[in-house]
Amino acid sequence: MNPLRSEYSFALDWDNLVRLAEEPGRFICDERPLLYYRVHEGATTKACIRDNRRFAEEREMFCRFWPEPVADGHIMGFIRRLTESMSSSFRTGKLVRIRKRKMQG
User: Fold this and answer.
1) Which residue, 30, 25, 4, is CA-closest to 15?
2) Burial class (CB in 10 A: 0-12, 13-18, 19+), 62
3) How far is CA 50 from CA 64, 82, 97, in A?
4) pLDDT, tens digit, for every residue of 32-90?
5) I need a labelling partner for 85 at 20 to 30 A (CA). Which of 1, 13, 78, 99 fits?
6) Cα-based distances in Å from 5 to 2, 8, 92, 102
7) What residues contact residue 46 under an 8 Å CB cut-off, 6+ apart?
């Protein structure tokens, strides 16, 4: 088995960690940044969000651990909180301030 292969486009890191956890051995925590990445307009992450692969893949992952109604409840709760958070951020202008701060620094 190649432990770093996944059928997923969005949830591949989660899938790989679960599969690695099922193998003999243990994890070692290293607090140093070992990888940097950026999200750009052509990124797979953005494509997965646009075409709902993110939702489908995360639902499959949740269903690996919980019955479908519980998994669906977790996903719907996450979506509700995310929507409320984004709505609140737009209303208060927090996103604009964060973006300006990042560009200055």
Assistant:
1) 4
2) buried
3) 24, 15, 25
4) 988 877 777 788 888 888 888 888 998 899 999 889 888 888 878 877 777 777 666 55
5) 13
6) 6, 9, 42, 34
7) 39, 40
pTM metric for this prediction:
0.61
Torsional sign, CA 60, 46, 81, 18: positive
Range in 5-9, 11-15, 90-94 the model is least confident about: 90-94
CA–CA distances in Å: residue 96 to residues 7, 37, 46, 86: 36, 22, 20, 12
Contact criterion met (CB below 8 Å) for 92 and 105: no
